């Protein structure tokens, strides 16, 4: 049985990481490290939680016990850990990182699977100095734009990527982007993000809108990379052309200033609505109530919400960013437009509106089958299990 630390820093983590944890625990021991954000109970006995104190001066006795245990178990590793924390500037920073690193060094997994590439800045020494095999997930933002807006991270990637044991990429596009920083393509395995059966099993054939306005939905946080300003400009164009369109935002409870101002400036206050955060179950229901999901992003790995909409039978319009072209194929599974192009977004929305029902049903059925074949949870978990076992075999050889 392999000891695999699936690390995101928070317990519980996001939905797709939680699905991975539960799936892997059916065969191997899973170790979770990080701050417990809310109570969670796992049914599988193979899942072990080693919490980091939320207040790093709090729960001092737990940290002291861990220090004593590590001192008895491996004085050498304790010495490495103490030296490693000296790179941080203040005593408080050193203490914070010491309490984060300590349980991982103490319980020493065979594989430390970092869910976010930028965590290499802090955890790379686990492989280089302690011999723990590092597996790094390449999901999108941390590869596509972080090293561009933060040159320091580009340098860290260039220094560490050539030595990492293995990488998991959510798309072929992300894998190739990582190779620009020295990642060996032979060590990168593309495994699509596992999708909850909730969406795949709730598929319904798409019906032509029988009433107006056309109901569109976008899902995600308000962030520049989501490209919402371009979608609002497209909405304004459609309004000027006389096409009645309504847009619902899901994922935030308040508009940022720039969106509020743009809505006012373009006169879209009555056409755009904010529905706030929703659970997975609520989202599945809401998606089916809309005529299309729009993804106007500038950057993505492969957006989960697009896969969820495709699984449900909801038409999708997406920008050609990141790995989106690997799933949204024009005329086959959806509509694909260039990034930062409101005119193209408006044209795609208009085209969808004029598409006959039989054609909508063909496209959305194709999309559902693609997701069902390449993103179902059971097969993706099996791929991860094989991947972990390959990493351990390679390290032994």
From TrEMBL:
Keyword Iron-sulfur among UniProt keywords: no
Domain of life assignment: Bacteria
Gene3D superfamilies xrefs: Glycogen Phosphorylase B
UniProt entry keywords in alphabetical sequence: Transferase
Keyword Cell inner membrane: no
Residue ranges of every copy of the Glycosyl transferase family domain listed in the record: 211-365
Matching InterPro entries: Glyco_trans_1 (IPR001296)
Protein name per Swiss-Prot or TrEMBL: Glycosyltransferase family 4 protein
Source organism: Paucihalobacter ruber
